[in-house]
């Protein structure tokens, strides 16, 4: 049995982890037991995808629960991919990641609100930089358009701007809920926390 945590998730014990074996299937030639360090959104999303591909995974986490650091304390904004140099890996991954994050949240009952966002110029001298951002956004395939100060106020009455860039495709998501959902999908993972044992070295995990 796992240990019940304040966030409601269950941490499996190392002994439980040792029961896991790679299931036969088309991924078997690649199959391996993978150790992921850190139960933030990156570790849990990685674990979830590795499991989907047929690997056995153990997530090691030093805290007593998931999403205790950046993932559980961020602003919840889905980055649209606006800022990155067109053609760069960051631009490609940023836009793809925004789309897949939204899709995952919608398909898995995680709170997501595609409310769009405004990037504003608060003085005229900032308008060329905003126009460059607009150009980058379009080159990156991000739906965005320049709007006037009056139009910006229709979205946000309290905004102070001389011009704005409106991005319709992005919004906010519950990162902690997202991580919890990834965690729940990772049915063959164990999260071994520091509270289980102070020394990682003493844990034995199943290897092929
Ligand atoms: C204030 C703030 C606001 C942000 N706002 C946004 C935003 O609006 N939108 C956005 O997309 N991004 C935002 N970010 C960035 C985003 O939160 C991070 O990129 C993301 O959460 C990183 O996830 P992670 O899993 O890599 O790290 P974390 O969530 O920090 O998880 C790392 C985990 O690894 C564990 N760990 C560390 N060392 C070990 C070890 N040796 N052994 C075992 N476990 C270990 C930690 O305990 C932790 O649980 C923000 C970040 C901050 C700080």
Q: What keywords describe this structure?
A:
208 residues; alpha/beta; FAD/NAD(P)-binding domain; 2 domains; three-stranded parallel β-sheet; three-stranded antiparallel β-sheet; 6 helices; 32% helix; disordered N terminus; disordered C terminus; binds flavin-adenine dinucleotide
If classified by CATH, what would the architecture of the largest domain be?
Answer: 3-Layer(bba) Sandwich
Question: Strand order, biggest sheet?
Answer: 3-4-10
| Secondary structural class | alpha/beta
Bound molecules: flavin-adenine dinucleotide
Fraction of residues in helix: 25-40%
Q: What is the residue-averaged pLDDT?
A: 81
Distance between the termini: 24 Å
At the fold tier of CATH, the topology name of the largest domain is: FAD/NAD(P)-binding domain
Number of domains: 2
Shape, please? elongated
Uncertain runs with pLDDT below 50, 5 residues or more?
A: 1-29, 197-208
Q: How is the biggest beta sheet arranged?
A: 3 strands, parallel
Counting DSSP E segments of at least 2 residues, the number of strands comes to: 10
Q: What is the chain-wise order of helices and strands?
A: EEHEHEHEEHEHEEHE
| CATH class identity of the largest domain | Alpha Beta
Strand content: 15-25%
Q: Over all CA atoms, what is the radius of gyration?
A: 21 Å
| DSSP summary: helix tally | 6
Description:
The chain folds into two domains: 3-72 and 175-202, FAD/NAD(P)-binding domain; 80-173, no CATH class. 32% of the residues lie in helices and 18% in strands. The chain has six helices and ten strands; from the N terminus they run E-E-H-E-H-E-H-E-E-H-E-H-E-E-H-E. It has helices spanning 14-17, 41-52, 89-107, 127-139, 149-155, 175-185; strands spanning 3-4, 10-11, 33-37, 56-61, 112-113, 117-121, 144-148, 163-167, 172-173, 191-193. Residues 37-43, 60-63, 68-71, 74-77, 79 line the site of flavin-adenine dinucleotide (FAD).
